[in-house]
Amino acid sequence: MKISLAPLQGYTDWVFRQAYEKCIGGVDEFYTPFLVLPNSGEVRTSHKREVEPFLERNNRLVPQFLAGSIEEFQFFETYFSELGYKKMNWNLGCPFPMVTRKNKGSGLLPYPERIKEILETGYSGKIDLSIKMRLGLEDKSEIFPVLDAIKDFNVDEIIIHPRIGKQMYKGSADWDCFEQIQKSFDKTIAFNGDIETLEDYHSLMSRFPDLKHVMIGRGILKDYWLPAKIKGIDVPSANERKLALRKMHDEIFSTYSSFLSGDTQILQKVKPFWEYFSSQFENERKVYKGIKKSGGLKKYHEAVSFAFLQNVKE
Ligand SMILES: Cc1cc2nc3c(=O)[nH]c(=O)nc-3n(C[C@H](O)[C@H](O)[C@H](O)COP(=O)(O)O)c2cc1C
Fold this sequence. Notes:
Layout: E1 2-5, H1 14-23, E2 29-31, H2 45-51, E3 61-62, E4 64-65, H3 70-83, E5 87-92, H4 97-100, H5 112-122, E6 128-133, H6 143-150, E7 157-160, H7 175-184, E8 189-192, H8 198-207, E9 213-216, H9 218-222, H10 226-231, H11 238-259, H12 263-277, H13 284-293, H14 297-309
Helix pairs in contact: 1-11, 3-5, 5-6, 13-14
The protein binds flavin mononucleotide (FMN).
InterPro entries: Aldolase_TIM, DUS-like_FMN-bd, DUS_fam
Active site: 94 (proton donor)
Keywords: Flavoprotein, FMN, Nucleotide-binding, Oxidoreductase, tRNA processing
């Protein structure tokens, strides 16, 4: 079974992924949050950092991109293959109106002909392609014509997050529709969505025993040892976990400090990290509140010390 870390823009950046790999481990494959091609034709520095430095240390990273045109698709295939990647992931799932309005992310799902055209003309096959997608933008019936449009292309894997775009993150993942897809489509299909505990994982596997790849996002951010639990690897003791969490935090903090300038910029990065990181601790609300309201680095470090006085959760 492959367990991959889902991309979460703002949370699973290269700083996080690198620290997780070093201090925790257990994830088989990482995906970058999506890269976009700005009008300038030049990839943003923050996006370059996602794919350039991490590569040297980890060949299990799959870069993800948004593309709504042949040109964008071609740009990313060339860019990633020149960087030496063997795989790339096309995002057909992003539900945010700023993206879907431009017919990208899940905004491209109502246009299967366009998807076909992009693959036909844009994809040269230099590197393997996987596609991460929702069930549709407005309706879950949209996925079937899309699957039909891509069935004849050399697509390595489809990762399904079974919600529609307009749902955002509301409601629950639609296992019935996932089952229908699995039955009707003969390419490799991975599952993503709402797997937060070992019990969730076991229920998923008892319904879909053929799955070979489960992608997990928020579940891992809330419990760093979820991949270990799934794989039956011994979970360290509470004391060891606390030490690993401390190391993880310090690694993240020092990496951000090494390239960001000023307390404000650093706090802007580490505070969102605690939105999920605080879930590892008992008294998580109080822990997060302390971090959130810390106005400067001194107060921040006090809030961090308070957090590490708490017990870590099982
Ligand atoms: C804050 C946030 C940012 C996200 N950013 C991305 C992204 O850049 N690319 C992507 O494919 N999915 C993105 N997602 C979706 C997740 O990868 C994943 O599909 C979704 O959270 C469901 O999986 P989970 O329940 O295991 O977290 C994001 C989700 C959230 C909550």
